[in-house]
Design goal:
Radius of gyration: 18 Å
Strand content: 15-25%
Structural class: alpha+beta
Number of strands: 13
Length: about 260
Amino acid sequence: MTKPDPVPPLPSASVVVVREGETHPELLMIKRRAGDAFGDSHAFPGGVVDHDESDAHGRIDGTTADEANAVLGIDGDGLDYFSAAIRELFEETGILLARSEDGAWARVTPGLQALRDEVDKGRLRWSQFLEDHGLRLACDALHYFAHWETPLVAPRRWSTRFFLAPLPPAQEASQSGTEVTELAWLTADAALDKARAGSIKLPFPTTRNLRNMAEFATVAELLDWADSRHDQGITRLCPVRVGQGKASKWTVWGDPDYPHSEPR
């Protein structure tokens, strides 16, 4: 029997917000409600690129369409990923990577917070929200560092671009709505320790990203690492299952037991 073709992956974006911690940077993680994609697991804020992200292109600072395409290694629509990353972060955590017309970081007032669900539910267009409040997306705050794609065998698939971003001044994360059930600031090592102890669950890409970030002692080091990743060239990683039974595990391009000669 011929295997069915893989489901096309949905373009999506995720943001790892970082702040200085006592010994290592702390990363903002969310836990989504059970039943959602990666539900009941701790992961980074993010979601699918909306069809109308391009409406917000006129409210973007810090990069151009050509620069965004070059950074992501695609032919077009690169700015859509930057817009989606900032929008999803705001909807899920209340953190807004945006500046006012005079260049100052956005003040996330109770009035702005109250509009999160309106944007999330599609009752208020993202571009209209930005225009109404004189906000411009701070795309220069996003540092692209990874590209993960859901395994080919999965019934639902995403092609996700991961960005790092420092926490803007005078902003705090907060929950809203029912999709996100928990927010947590954790160092990479602390998150991995909790997963090993069984107190939290981590998706495979999250685990691998955390391992990569665990060695850095400051936010500046993390951002430099992200920028170096881009300079070296970022490979799309699509996990493949190897082994049988309890010995089976996920593996990606670059692992010694990856079964293919090229990235999938």
